[in-house]
Amino acid sequence: MDILMPQLGETVAEGKITKWFKSAGDTVKPGDNLFEIETDKVSMEVPAIEAGVLSEIRVTEGEIAPVGAIVGVIGAAGSAPPAPASAALAAAPPPKSPAQVAPAAAPKPPAPPTGYENVPEPSAPTAAGPIKLDPFFEVRTPARNFGPARISGGTSVTPLARRLASEAGIDLSRLRGSGPHGRIVARDIEAGPRPAGHAPLAQGLGTDQVKTLYDPAGYEEVPLDSMRKTIAARLQQAKQTIPHFYLTTDIAIDRLMALREEANAGAPKDRDGNPAFKLSLNDFIIRALAQALQQVPAANAAWAGDRILRFKHSDIGVAVALEGGLIAPIIRNAEAKSLSALSAEMKGLAARARDKKLKPAEYQGGSSTISNLGMYGVREFAAIINPPQATILAVGASRRQAIERPDGGVAFASMLTATLSCDHRVVDGALGAQLLAAIKALLETPVAMLV
Fold this sequence. Notes:
Elements: E1 2-4, E2 14-20, E3 27-28, E4 33-38, E5 43-47, E6 52-57, E7 64-66, E8 70-75, H1 85-91, E9 116-120, E10 149-150, E11 156-157, H2 159-168, H3 186-191, H4 207-211, H5 226-241, E12 244-252, H6 254-265, H7 281-295, E13 301-303, E14 307-311, E15 316-318, E16 320-322, E17 325-327, E18 330-331, H8 339-354, E19 368-372, E20 391-395, E21 399-404, E22 410-423, H9 429-444
Parallel strand pairs: 15-19, 19-20
Antiparallel strand pairs: 1-8, 2-4, 2-7, 3-6, 4-5, 6-8, 9-14, 10-11, 12-22, 13-14, 15-18, 16-17, 20-22, 21-22
Helix pairs in contact: 7-8, 7-9
């Protein structure tokens, strides 16, 4: 039985094996951890699903392999070592003629997904020919049917590298791969020469050009890990391909702070006197965005190439800072959860995110995202949209500010500034303003969030 590099997410193309728990020749049984892998988002242990003997390790610790690649082999207990490829080919039965092959039954069409409705672009014409997919995603087959393609000469190429080469007009046969066993991977395409008429994949100065501007004794080089590479690529593409616009408002939060203080003071205590929950300002913001998306359903949507997906529930991502990067775990159906439930779930997600233990379903998809830098003293900023979402809410620090009262007098109030970044392909200016107004109203009248 071949051990394959598992698929850990729609946008994950490869993984790095950081540790093997078994050695070649060891007996394994279902459930035994075989190896640990690390991607740009998570690290996880991969268990065996069949009993036998680990007869071969093909990808060693520290090596990177594409999704679907064979990283090891499990043989039956007491079986002989695997035969060489030439012997296996010699023993293989001759292929059947077309007449001997029975036609396969046509597969049943999959059931339509739930959780959103398709909103086709009314003015988008349909043209004959292949469909151009969104550049952030690739169609992937299940891992058991997935493997690196090959070019003439037997060199294997990862699917991501093949796509990048096609977009840049690069002849793969002229490249030497730096991946396991000479495989061509994405970094080989990015570092390769660009043909005439094709722009570099990464705009700007190259490594050598940048280094010539500085004294070598004045800096140290920090190689990019997989997380930083993914963040750089996705956010650069997001900023270049998504037509962002920004809406900013100031929100009075005196009532909210008073309600939060009262709720935390009244939280039930356990036997040791510890409160059952402790609500943060961010918990109220999550609740407000979730309810606002229900009040303005046209903004609860995502861009899907030739159509818009409008969601039935508010799945809210919250940016969590990690060492060397960030990730946005998602609270599903946030509009239906109480403040205490949101608080507990967010604490658990944040802890697993920092330990890189999130599952793909816990950080992929989502309706919208919150990025809160208020705890760092940032007053105001604009965040970059996390595709394919259409909005992201950037929240700054609260502050005391003088404001004019209705009678013309002056008073001090607790204020915070929030900026909503919108994808203009999905959310127009007026629609974004409605969503931001709904968020503001809920935070300024927080008792409405308790109903």
